[in-house]
Structures are given as C-alpha cells and as structure tokens.
Amino acid sequence: MNEEVAEYRNKNRKKLLWMSVLFVAMIIVATYSICVTQYSISFSRAMEIIINHINGEEPQDYWDRLEKFIVIDSLCPRAVGGVLVGLILGICGTLMQSTIRNPLADPYTTGISSGALLGVTLFTVFGFSVIPSADENVGLIVSAFSFALIPCILVISISSFKRVTSTTIVLIGIAVMYVFNAFSTLIRYTASDEDVASIYAWSVGLLGRMNWESSVYLFIVFILLFVISIYAANTLNVLAMEDKMCSALGVNPQRTRLFIMVIVAVATATAVCFVGTIGFIGLIAPHIGRIFVGSDNKYLIPASAIIGAFILISADSVARIITTTGLPVGVVTSAIGGPIFLIILLRQRKSAWGDH
Question: How far is CA 214 from the centre of its chain?
C-alpha cells in the first residue's frame, strides 16, 4: 500500500513539474512577443519602454512616442489578450471533450463560431446590432457575442423537451452550424468587397484588435471559468463514464452537461467577440495536455489552458512577421494545428483518454 501511495504521489509530482515547465515556456514566449514586430524594436528596447512607462517617464521626440505606442498600446495588450484567449479556449476545449466524451469536440462544437460569424456579418453589411451603439467596435462585439449564444440556447431548449445524448448534442451543433453558415454566405453575396474582406479577417481570427479594456473583460471571464472548472473537475471525471454509472455515483449527467455547456458558451462567446474565430486551439490543447498529465481534469484543465496560451501566442508571433503585412493568427493556428493533431492521433496511446 505504501508503495502504491508513493507511486501515486510521484506521478502527481511529475504532472506538476510538467505544468511548471509549460507555464515558464508560455511566460517566456509571451514576454518576448512584445518585440516581435515589423518595426525594428529590440527586446531590451521594448523592456526599457515598459519600465519608463511604469516610472511615468514621457518620451521626448516623435520616434520615442511612436515606439511607446507600438509597445504599450499595441504589442503588450496583444500579448496579454493572446494569453488570455489561449487560456480560455484551452479550458473550454477540455470541458467540451470531457463533457460529451468526444475527442473531436472543441469550444465551437455547438455552433458558437457560426453564430458569432452571422452576427458579425449582419453588423458589417447591414449595421444591425442587438444593442445600437455609436461606437462601431462596440456594436460589432455586442452583435458577435449575442449571436454566438443562440446555438447554445437552441441546444438547451431542445434538451429541455427531449432527453439528448452527448452524440445528439454534437449533431445539433453541426446542424446549427450549417444553417448559420448558409445565412452568412447568402448575406456576403450582397456585400461589398471591403465588407467581405472585413468579415473574412474576423472569421479567421485577429489579435490585432486587442486593447487594455478588452483584456480586462477576458481576464474576468478567465478567472471565473478557471475557478468553476477546477471546482467541477471531479464531477467531470465521473462524467467520463456512462450515464447510468454517473447517476449511480450521484451525478446527474444531463444537468451537469447542460451546465458545463452554458459556461463554455459564455466564455467562448466572450473570446470570439473580441478576436474572431481562432481554430484548433481548443481542439489540440487538451490532446497535448493528456500526453503530459493524463486525463484527470484536476491537472488536465490547467495544463490545457497553459498549452492553449503557449500555442496561440507563438502562432501570433509567427503571424506578425511571416509577411510584410502580417497574417491573421487563425491562418497560422489552422496551418500548424492540422498536422500536429494528425501526429497526435497517430502516436497517442490507446489508454490516453482513460489514464488519470
């Protein structure tokens, strides 16, 4: 018995060690990203600008003011926002995969991304917003957030009338996604080239819209999401079993599944409305996390969050310099996410989903 306890504790220490290594790597990449730009700003110069800003020193000439604007008002909130969005998508991906017991699930499984895209399309082409606002950026965010929640509301409404399985939830999400995408495509046929380009840029994800105000909202959502997820980790472990077994252990699978889906929908909608649809983060982060810490959600949730942030901020750094004008980060995550996911599927242990 003592040997089994020692082995269990040793395994947990290894998991914590891996998470610490991943966390340090994420912090290093996020910190270095503040000097990754088409402008010639070194890391030491970027740190000097940040220190001067903290000390309240104002730049004297035009170039100093320009560098301060690039670092303080553009690159820093972009790095912070990228980390927060990656954390949120990593957690949401883990919650969805654990909740509906499907390795192909991600935060957009219930059609959240297609709903948000329809909201952005309606606002961009017709100026329609749920809450009228003089600020165009606010109107776009509100419209994307509101429409992103519609698919989740549909799933919950259907589930309240008829008992649905996790597979049915996925199928409902796919059906809703196709319907919403059809409406978005139809509207884009009547749009100008400028509007189509704007909608496309949003649909593949763009961290360039991040600012300090939006980072505050994302930080609040992340903290609430993380606390709820860790609190529900043991319940999620039980939910990995069959529904009958869950009920025997005192967990209502239907109620728990719907609760988690609401949490995921709100968190994902918040992330999406600020940066657009960034694919593959919520899908591959949990799979990579299982390689390092197994499937116990007490460790998998924070590990997936860290990995999601690391992947997103790394992809954004590459996206900034890959061309003279930069690329949407969603293009990079999709380009590298597909091959990585394929390699993981080919090499992953058969027991990875059940190895705690």
Answer: 15
Q: How far apart are CA 85 and CA 123, in angstroms?
A: 23
CB hemisphere CA count around 38 (13 angstroms): 9
Q: Residues 293-350: pLDDT tens digits?
A: 988 899 999 999 999 999 999 988 888 887 666 677 878 888 887 787 777 777 665 5
Write down the pTM of the prediction: 0.90
Quote the CA–CA distance of 319 and 272 in Å, as a whole number: 18
Burial of residue 260 (CB within 10 Å: 0-12, 13-18, 19+) is buried
**Per-residue tokens: 133:** 């606002």
Distance CA 107, CA 277 (A): 10
Q: Would residue 61 be called left, alpha or beta, if left means φ above 0 and alpha means ψ between -120 and 50 degrees?
A: beta
Please report, for the chain, how many H helices and E strands are present, in that order. Answer: 15, 0
Torsion of CA 339, 90, 84, 302, to 10 degrees: -130
What are the contacts of 155-160 at 24+ separation with CB within 8 A? 155/110, 155/261, 156/258, 156/261, 156/262, 159/254, 159/258
